[in-house]
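Appendix B. One record, verbatim.
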Amino acid sequence: MNANVVLQTSIPGTTPKRGKVRDVYDFGDKILLVSSDRISAFDWILPTGVPDKGKVLNQTAEFWFETLGVPNHVITTDVNEIPFPEGTDLSQFEGRSVLCKKTNVVMIECVVRGYLAGSGWKEYRESGTVCGIKLPEGLVESSKLPEPIFTPSTKETTGHDQNISFEECADRVGLDVATKLRDLSLDVFKRGSDYAAKRGIIVADTKFEFGFDDSGELILIDEVLTPDSSRFWPADLYEPGKSQPSFDKQFVRDWLLQSGWDRNSEPPQLPDDIVLKTREKYIEAFERLTDRKLKFQSNL
């Protein structure tokens, strides 16, 4: 299985910045984002990758950028149109790369929640609020909210992003920009979640990122409505009052929690069956959402 996993990519003479999942290459006035098969959990990058995960992330985002019609940073996802240096092995980039406009990134994670889960559920139990927004009494875990809410967070380079109120967001980036971030995020969330609902998938919450392009326009960047940036729940299994089955790395989290790992030392290798189940969930989410077959899929 390891032969089908791309944990790192390389371009001759170039050193990328490596995030938890993406390798980022500077191409002068453009950047190349490459989604690897790395998977993270509990703020650790795991030693075992998931075959085709990066292709799912890249091609899911590509689908949404096309479908939503929102101004965005995409130039091309075709490796033959990307100006790779001579001698680059293109096979490692197929299906998982996007050449993008460079932007002045707004340092806010634009989180939209349609359901009560994760840190939002934790805060609600303590105070009846999420990011300072007062919610109705009597909600339970995974409750659908009366309306989707914009709950921004800081964009940290290390450690956890921190939830902040809209007022704190406005203090950081200005009221005009904060208002645009909120309105754009809620609009994209509504259109994306309405579309996903027709495909039998609930988008419980998601995060967006935005940046200003050369003309000063605020555009959508990074990824959009992928299994890594969103909670996707199968609608036919939805049952409020508990956590939901999910189209993401829940298999990985569950296995790690029962493995005896202390979360303070290097994480263990994942068993093949957990890797394969996780891969299947990612691909299922992609196919259900897009009605497409994953391009350049590994033959496992």
